[in-house]
Amino acid sequence: MVRAVTSPYYRYRHAKLLHSVRVGLAMIVSILATTGINIPHGIWSSVTLLVVIGGLQHHGNIRKKAADRAAGTLLGASIGLVLILQQNLFGSLWLTYVLMSIVAGICAWYAIGKAGYIGLLTAITMCIVAGHGDNMIDTGLWRTLNVLIGIVIALAFSFALPLHATYSWRYLLADNLRGCARIYTRLVDGAPFDADEQLKTFLELNARLVQLRALMPSVAKEIEASPGKLEEIQRVHRSVLSALEIMATGTLAQANATGRAAFAQQCGAEARAVRAMLLAMARGLRFGGAARFLAPKVVLARVPSSAIAQHLTPELQGPYWLGERLIEQVDRLRALLLETEPNWNIERHGPQVRASTRPG
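-> structure tokens emitted (360 positions)
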């Protein structure tokens, strides 16, 4: 149990359990902090807590959601209080209805866009605080206070055993790199894929690729890395998967035993080096350490293009060329991970690395 709580990898493996326990404890604290001491309208604290933290397990997501929630809440509460004041001043419900409708329309304009959550929460909080213009000023103030209490509790529990999106990103990418190493070695060694096995393998790899894409905004928030760098890592990773899928389904997969043996003889040394590089990157992502991402000391000897025909049939020269490009992509991925290691290796460098400490 201690290992599961303190180890980032075990927190990643048991993320759902830890998240559910954390939300349950936060709910108890919310109830005791409001209803337990008779703060009026305390239910809104628990509602806010669930909105901010209930469906988000990663620290970067929760921080962003809480910041958006706070901005929308403060803006919506201010508008709601102004509506209550004008209702008390002019006493016209129709004027209140028109003003609320105008505010809702403006919020809807901003709700479709980058600040969508803030726009939506502004309109919702306005209704919570002002009602339909018939709420008292003290009711609006209490509801505003409860929403802010819910945000504070959610943030406090997000710092307790945080589930960083960065760890999920690292471990998923490491799993894919190990999978790429197995596939490439198998292709070069001449072990053909069964159609069902091949489909299942690439579906798993592509599913992780999609998960990595979804994690990138939260990772960028947590480690203050350039979104462009994360995007480039994603692009190169996708290129590696595409190259392997083409090799697994192209002429190499249709070659006879003799052709496969010639291909293995031609590319065997390079395949072993690529496999070692992919596995080293996977271990570096799993355990940390920039040394695992250093360029290989042994420079691979490339066979001159004029000599390829002596070893490979014309139809296998395409897969050979694709393998050469694959090596370049793997080395590019290695260089990108080494460059960004001070950012994503948060157990060594901390969860947030300022721009002034980044390499280069």
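Confidence is low (pLDDT under 50) at residues 297-309, 352-360.
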